[in-house]
Design goal:
The structure holds 2 protein chains of 2 kinds. Chain A has a 5-stranded antiparallel beta sheet with strand order 4-5-8-6-7. Chain A has a 4-stranded antiparallel beta sheet with strand order 9-10-11-12, sandwiched between helices. Chain A has a 3-stranded parallel beta sheet with strand order 1-3-2, covered by helices on one side. In chain A, helix 5 packs antiparallel against helix 9 and helix 11 packs across helix 12. The radius of gyration of chain A is 19 Å and the shape is globular. Chain A is of the alpha+beta class. Helix content of chain A is about 30%, strand content about 20%. Among the domains of chain A are: about 45 residues; about 100 residues, Enolase-like, domain 1 (2-Layer Sandwich), CATH 3.30.390. The N terminus of chain B is likely disordered. A 5-stranded mixed beta sheet of chain B has the order 2-1-5-3-4, sandwiched between helices. By secondary structure, chain B is an alpha+beta fold. The chains are: A alpha+beta, B alpha+beta.
């Protein structure tokens, strides 16, 4: 383990002040990703600013029928919160599809958004990686790239975002509240994470001196017609090869509103509003779902070992939208896919 | 620490940090220790407090052998720093038995022969204690899913699940 200084943030303003004064410092909350990266010598912060005791653990109803989730709410508390289970079961399901019970007890809401890719070349400091060392090259493009992205890649980086929770938050159109030295601001979820382009070292559009304070869910929860379908190499405790968050609002058999987001396929949770628009006003059937799958995967491009993900994603999307339409969401404990 | 003077990419040198005093209640006993910030809770328990029940399996939060209960919740002790847990109540496998009587989970693991080499067992026991306290697992499938953070390379899973089921039923009756 590298040497670093440790301090606690007394309050939010102190946290922002501390990080602004030491740009090589990092915030720590749950620590489940950052500590691992420090052990691997990928992250080398000069100081850890412990924010885990800040009062950001509330889940509160907002005036417009939504929910505001404090950035430090642990993943397990969020997944099992009665309001989340009842009104946003897609979010609960996605969280429970990820990590293990122990890690969900530790990991925070804000930290989940900021976790870094599990690309093995990013982790392996003996190999080039533009995300870890800008300008060094990408070992994954011509390396073993079975787990890598098929959408939104760049010459510089083909890593994927690893989160399950974020795929649901993208589909639900969550908003992210942040605080910084010049006050607070709010980002649409789609604007939080970035595509790699030629700056893959930047995962998000947050400034280095900004801190996530809360995630806000709008009123629309799609509790009647949703699913989170995660396809992976093991039945549990593995990152997604492909995952699908699907949510529908139906009037009889006609689709009034549709949401579709993919995990495991891109540098950010992949949502395509044109695929959703292709379903709106259409019958909830296989032909409609196939058109949506074609739309969202239109620009998909495989590499040497991951081209299978394109067909896998197509089939997973069809299955997920069928599960959502039927009101039979994928169980996260009984693994049989129906 | 040989690496304490190693330079950061920007050339900045980090001075050796002061040790920080941490108060923990471990298995019901108040303990105070001065640790560097990089000492994980797992290392503090094993190397400083002599509690070698929590095992350092992978040291990356992937195997669950270091599972302990912190304020009643199961966590992997390799993925948190001791300084972050100041004031916490920690229970390791050494703290599960009461007055010389095995914890129902420990007895159930013996009854069901729920281990072979035993390397994962202390983590399995603490994780299962957390699982039962959470009250979320009712079926075999749910036990398997919510215990998936604890690997057993001997493959004793069927007996581990059976042992947990037995302890859960005892808990309910």
């Amino acid at each position: 383990m590298i040497n670093f200084q440790y301090s606690r943030a007394a309050d939010l303003a102190d946290a922002v002040r501390q990080i602004a004064g030491e740009p090589t410092a990092k915030f720590i909350a749950g620590g489940t990703n950052l500590i691992d990266l420090m052990k691997e010598d990928v992250e080398r912060p000069s100081r850890l600013i412990d924010i885990s005791r800040l009062p950001l653990r509330q889940i509160e109803e907002t005036g417009d029928g939504g929910l505001r989730i404090g950035a430090l709410v642990p993943n397990s508390d969020l997944a099992y919160h009665p309001l989340i289970e009842r009104r946003y079961p897609l979010l609960a399901s996605a969280i429970l599809a990820g990590a293990s019970a122990q890690l969900r007890n530790m990991a925070s809401t804000g930290g989940n958004l900021l976790q870094r890719t599990r690309c093995y070349y990013f982790y392996d400091t003996a190999t080039p990686c533009n995300k870890r060392t800008p300008g060094s090259g990408c070992a994954a493009r011509n390396g073993v790239n079975r787990i890598h992205a098929i959408l939104g890649t760049s010459d510089a980086c083909i890593a994927t975002h690893p989160s399950d929770m974020c795929v649901a938050l993208a589909a639900l159109e969550a908003r992210v509240h942040v605080a910084g030295p010049s006050g607070g601001r709010t980002l649409e979820f789609a604007d939080l994470h970035r595509l790699p382009c030629d700056t893959p070292e930047r995962d998000t559009n947050l400034g280095a001196d900004e801190i996530i304070t809360a995630v806000e869910l709008p009123a629309r929860g799609f509790a009647a017609h949703y699913t989170y379908l995660k396809i992976r190499d093991r039945l549990s405790y593995a990152f997604a090869l492909v995952s699908v968050a699907a949510a529908l609002e139906l009037e009889h058999d006609t689709i009034k509103e549709a949401r579709l987001a993919l995990g495991g396929v891109a540098h950010k949770p992949w949502r395509d509003v044109s695929a959703e628009a292709a379903m709106r006003g259409e019958p909830a059937n296989r032909a409609t779902f196939a058109r949506a799958a074609d739309a969202i995967l239109r620009d998909a491009k495989g590499f040497a070992h991951n081209a299978f993900k394109i067909e896998l994603a197509r089939r997973a999307i069809l299955r997920a939208l069928s599960q959502a339409a039927a009101g039979t969401p994928q169980s996260q404990s009984v693994k049989k896919i129906r | 620490m040989a690496r304490t003077r190693r330079k950061r990419p920007n050339g900045q040198t980090i001075p050796a940090p002061e040790k920080i005093t941490v108060s923990l209640t471990v298995n019901g006993v108040p303990r105070e220790l001065a640790v560097a910030p990089w000492v994980t809770l797992l290392d503090a328990l094993r190397e400083r407090l002599g509690l070698t029940g929590p095992k350092k399996g992978c040291d990356h939060g992937q195997c669950g052998a270091c599972t302990v209960l912190v304020d009643g919740r199961r966590i992997v002790s390799c993925m948190t720093f001791a300084v972050m847990q100041d004031g916490a109540k920690v229970t390791t496998v050494e703290g599960l038995a009461r007055d010389g009587t095995l914890h129902p989970l420990q007895q159930a693991f013996i009854d069901h022969d729920a281990f072979q080499c035993g390397a994962c067992t202390s983590g399995q026991l603490c994780s299962a204690a957390g699982l039962i306290a959470e009250g979320r697992a009712k079926t075999v499938e749910e036990i398997r899913e919510l215990m998936s953070g604890n690997l057993c390379r001997c493959g004793a899973y069927p007996n581990i699940v059976a042992a947990i089921q037995q302890a859960m039923e005892r808990e309910r009756s």
